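Subject: two folds for Thursday's group meeting

Dear M.,

Sorry for the delay on this. The cluster queue was jammed most of the week, so I only got both jobs back this morning. I'm pasting them in the order they finished. Each block is the input sequence followed by the predicted structure tokens. Could you check whether the formatting survives your parser before we put anything on slides? The first protein is the one we discussed after the seminar.
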Amino acid sequence: MGTGHHLRVGVLVFDGAEELDVVGPYEVLSAWAGLSALHPEVVTFSADGAGVRCAKGLCLVPDTSADDVGPLHVLVYPGGRGTRALATDAAHLDWLRGVRATTPLVTSVCTGALVLAAAGLLAGRPATTYWAAFDELAAIDPSVLADTEARFVDDGDVVTSAGVSAGIDMALHLVARLESPEVARAVRRAIQYDPAPPV
């Protein structure tokens, strides 16, 4: 599972992150931590460890900073309007490439995929994003094999999900992949998640 003694999941937060992109996967993964024999650790972090204001005004205080978060097995990169500035921030993209080099599994929710693409992490790979952001994704990296239908796309060491609530589905998939489908079903029951399919 990479470095460290136990499974560690880091959820990045930043100004303008979409609330459910952050707290949807966090809810799933934290519920998993409470049920799992693997006892994964789920932490939130911002660039400098300071609080952030999400896209709709929710303020979050993360556990730590990017410098202090330590080795991760899984990175969860949310979307939201704040991704547009990050996708053009050279220092942030360098940081993300560095995280990718040491993190076995990098995931994104919604327009988080735009930042992954800007860092070159989706080049030539299948991926998905928010339904209204596929043109932006193609403009950033036309080599990305965009999947406009999937709720999430698992391409091995990179997993991307579609918009907002799709991050919950992706996180449940991560639980099934990292532990078992049985535990994922237990998490789904614990959070009482049983959506009707979109029409």
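Second protein, same layout:
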Amino acid sequence: MATDLKGLKAACGQSIWVDNLSRTLIRDGILRRYIEEDGVSGVTSNPSIFQKAIHGSPYYQEDLRRPAASAERLYESLVVEDLRQACDLLHPTFLASDGDDGLVSWEESPRLGDDAEASIAEAERLRSLVQRENLLIKVPATPAGVRAFEALIARGISINVTLMFSLGHVRAVFAAYQRGLRQYIASGGDPRRVKAVASLFLSRVDTLVDQRLTAMGSEEALALRGKAAVAMAKSAYAIYQETFHGQGFAGLREAGGRPQYLLWASTSTKNPAYDDQLYVQPLIGPETINTLPEATLRLFREHGRLQPTLEDGLAEARATMARLQALGIDMDGGIAATLQREGLQLFSDSFEEMLAEVRRASA
């Protein structure tokens, strides 16, 4: 019997977003069905997703021949239409949740990951292009990206911080959010207008950590394979609870500030030996978001269970993190730095491939 995913938010407090956006998804009514039948309440996108969409969907071909100043501006004109339509489909959810859900994310150019000032200007420009209140601009959790994030929150711009791979990233982003929110309130802004989420990537963590553990080859190392990402996510949620439900955030909450929800990203299982719900079933809890690729969403619908699990096994998760550290797996250092660098490069490669495709199609 299929799982009624529409009950997840009411039963467990978690939102399901779909990690895909294309004209096929919109024009063929697929996104509308996800919203109506599965309770999907948000959309995430990135350069890789748009590259695949423009390459694989027939709905872009005519518009690819429109005149434009550059391939990048033509790409923007294509995806702005998609983003507006997705925002419009989710706007009733946005209103019903008082701005807490029903959101659509658009990623900045990965070329800007190390340039805070350019990231700030670009986020403002992209938001002005879409002109929808339920749009989130995605900026990476690089050092420059975190500075840009703080400045953008201080200007009242809603943000999805992406490419987070460690507890260190979580702490830095949460701290930047609170600093930005204080500045926004001090300038007379209404914090209820600001929404931020923090996207913690999971499967990529296990892929790299598993490689290191396999290379070690010891019984203790091999026993930890496939456990790092979930342990990190559970530990991150404990940090979330301490940060946003503790005294440190009480003043901002009283002023109307929203907690910065954790979003589980990269949730398709890369290792076929692992459970296809490895990054879904153990991580169900209130005030969180899981953004699922369509295949993972279908699998969750087929055999998922709607039960809160996120706070289970926290002591074990912390012990796993400590065991990894004892083996020399530096989750906050080398692992996070490598994955963030590779993630930014992957998005950059996809972005350049997409622009090359746009040039070819529009020639």
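Two things I noticed about the second structure. The longest strand covers residues 135-140. DSSP finds 15 helices and eight strands in the chain.

Cheers,
T.
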